[in-house]
Amino acid sequence: MDLEEWFHICGVSTPYENPSTWDGAPSHVVRDTEVIMRLLDEVGVKGTFLSVGWIGEKYPDLIRRLSNAGHEIGCHSYWHRLVYMLTPDEFRKDLEACLQILRELSQQPVTVFRAPGFSMKSECFWAYPILRENGIEIDVSIVPATRDHGGIDGFPRDPFQLRTSSGQIKVFPVSVWNVAGKTVPFSGGGYLRLFPLSLIKLGFSQNMRDGRPCMTYIHPREVNINQPRLKLPLKKYIKYYVGISTVVDKLRALLCTYRFTTVSDVLSNCEQLPQYYLDGDQIREANARVDRELRE
Asked: Which homologous superfamily is 2-295 in?
C-alpha cells in the first residue's frame, strides 16, 4: 500500500501542491489505513506499506503500529515528488530523509522503494545506484505499460535482478495483462476501482498461468467514500474518485481468493531471477559474456 494522504496527487494543480499547506489540510490517512489493516487482519495477511516520510513524521504512531503488527515498511519518498522532476542530489536528499525517519520509527531496515506516481522512467534510471547506496534492495516503481507520470511500454514483466554501479537491486514490476491487444495494469489503484472483479481475476489468472507473481496496490483514500474531493480535470476526477464504493468488497474478495504476503516475502520465494544490468538509461538483459565482462 502507498501510505499517503488524500491530497497527495501528482501532476495536477491543487491547493495542496506546496507542502507548507499540508499541516492545514484535514487528515484521513490514519483512519483510512486502519480500514485496510482490519481487512488484512480478517484473513491473516501481512502487507508492505510504502510510506511518505512526511506521514511518518506527522503520524509516527501509525508507522509503529504497522511495524508492530508485522507489516513491512517501505519508502515512498519524503515529499511525494515525481522522480523525473528531481535532480540526482534532490532525489538523494529526499530519499535519505524518508529512510531516516521510517527506519527509526519502524525499527526495520526499510529496503523497498516505490517512486511517487510510478515515476521511475528510463530518463531517471540514475536513481537506481542512489537507491542501492542507501540500502534499498527492492524497487516496485515501474509499470510495464503506458500510463501517466511514468510507465515503460515493453518493459520486462517478471521480477529480475538489476546490476548497477553500486550493487544489485531487485526490480518487481507492477502487474499488467494483455487485453484487446493492449498491455494494461489491472490490480491496483484506479484499475481496482474501475474494473469489475471478474476482469481483475482474469488478469490474475493470465499472470498465474505464466508463473508470474501478481502485485495489488492501494492508497488509503481509496477505501474512504467520504474523503474530500478536489477540483480536478475530468479524466483525473474519474481516475481518483469513481468506484471508491466498490473497493472494500473487491479487496476482501481478492484477499480471500489469492495468497498475499509482503513484497520481500514474495521475492524471497522466487527461484533464480533473470539477470539484467544498467547501461546508462537502458536496462539490458545479461548473458554469459556480459556477466564475465561485468565481473572483470
From this structure: Glycoside hydrolase/deacetylase (3.20.20.370)
